[in-house]
Every structure is written in structure tokens, then in C-alpha cells.
Amino acid sequence: MDNETLKTIRTRRTVRHFLNEPVSAETLETLCRSAMCAPSACNKQMWQFVVVTERADLDAMAAFLPSAKMLAQAPAAIVVCGEPAETFGFYWQQDCAAATQNLLLAAQSLGLGACWCGLFPREEPAEATAKFLGIPDGVIPMAVLAIGHPDPAAGEKPKDKWKPQKVHFGKW
């Protein structure tokens, strides 16, 4: 069984090396629109997205986020934020994770590469990102995604991640 959706899912990979080509504002909006199609608890849709394209801002974020050094190469980033007060308990994390996966798959389907860099629940990177981007209190940056055109010279290729021993039918 194969179709375009399954092909996109199976060929998606983390990309940390990018070409020096911009990503259009229209494409970045398309990625955010795709993220907003994700399911959310009670359909609260408590996410917010900060799109970063200024080279100086991307470089600064790469400097203060140890796990996001690739931002220094990426032409764009999208910070996925949650509003915990707008949902029940900790469901906001699941909602933002679903939105992030939609965004990653949309990027792959458009020929872009992306790298998901976690911020929350680590306080220091989440707070530093919130302060740098002027994110208001009560809104928590969950992840930053470096986005761009993959550099084919980097040799980043998808891997077959299927492990049948991890699937249990009926009962464990």
C-alpha cells in the first residue's frame, strides 16, 4: 500500500544542513496553515506560531539554543507555542506536538527540510526564546523548527524505521 501521504511520512527525515535559499512568506504561511489542521483537545487550538526569517535573529537564537545550532544555516524558523490556560491540564503539549508533526510533513511534501528542536519542558531555553521573541506571559515556546531547502551535499537520507517487535496486536 503506497500513496503520496504515506510516501511523505516515510521519506521525512531531520534536516540540519540547508542551502542558502530563502523560503517564501507564502510557503511559511502554508506550513502554519498545515500545522493548524492538527487535532487538539476539545478543539481548543491553543497554539501560536512565531515565524522568524531575519538572519540576525536566527543567528542569535542559534547562539543561545545549544540544540538549535542549525538555525545559523537555516533561512527560516517557526517557533511552536502553547497556551496552557486555554486547554485542559497538559494537553497543550500533545496539541502542539501534533501541530509540529503536521508542519514537518507539510515541509517534506513541499521539498523542504526541517529539524524539530525541543524547548519545553527545559525552562532555560523556553524562557530565553520567549524573552528574545517577545512572547507574552502565559504562552510557552514548546519547539523551534529550523526550515529550509535541504543541502544535498550533507547526505541526509531517510531511514527505514520499521521495527515489528515494537508493534503488539490485541495485548502485549
TrEMBL record:
Domain Nitroreductase, first and last residues per copy: 9-60, 67-149
Basic and acidic residues composition-biased segments: 154-163
Protein name: Nitroreductase family protein
SUPFAM superfamilies in UniProt: FMN-dependent nitroreductase-like
Single GO term (MF): oxidoreductase activity
Region (Disordered): 151-172
Record-linked PANTHER family: NAD(P)H NITROREDUCTASE RV3131-RELATED (PTHR23026:SF123), NADPH NITROREDUCTASE (PTHR23026)
